[in-house]
Amino acid sequence: MFVAYPRAHKWDTGISINGFLAGLVAITCPCYWVSPFGSICIGAVAGVVVILGIDLLEYLRIDDPIGAWPVHGLCGMWGTWSLGLFATGQYGSATSIGPDPSTTFTGLFYGGGFHQLQFQIYGSLIICAATFAIALMVMYALKAVGVLRISAEHELEGLDGVEHGAPPYHPEYAYMGYSPIPSGKSPGISIPTGSGAPSISVGE
What we know:
Low-confidence stretches: 177-189, 197-204
Radius of gyration: 23 Å
Number of strands: 4
Helix content: 40-55%
Shape: globular
Structural class: mainly alpha
Mean pLDDT: 83
Number of helices: 7
């Protein structure tokens, strides 16, 4: 909120929720190994990283309307790397009879150097590469069988209503600013195509 408000001059609920989700994702990897102070630092950085990630996707014109990749992907990587930065060396691996003191390690900020950090970065890069390759194969398979894209009409109407059954364009639901649909009429929208240009109408 402190980062987003000066930019938009409004309290954005979606960004706020993504901010604390970013902190939750980031602390998942290192939660056992870091101190309370370290966890606060990790969450604070994640709250900024998620906004920068959203900015990056918008700059690249990649469609991610809920910020899933900045939250789960980018902040997940930050959290994985943060273990190599904030591990205090106080906690051994958990076993059935208690912590194992022989397995402690420290991060860069606690005198451990880059030893653990390099493995965290290496591991996250391997995961990213594997995930990208598998996702690419799945998407090309879906494209090959003709189910990757929806129709142009449904794309304009929106997947909330077409695919998920949610009443689209209703102010009581997710998207504010749309008028309620009169009873007995099918949902439709009118999309301006430019200044002074005719609109594209979908529905009745």
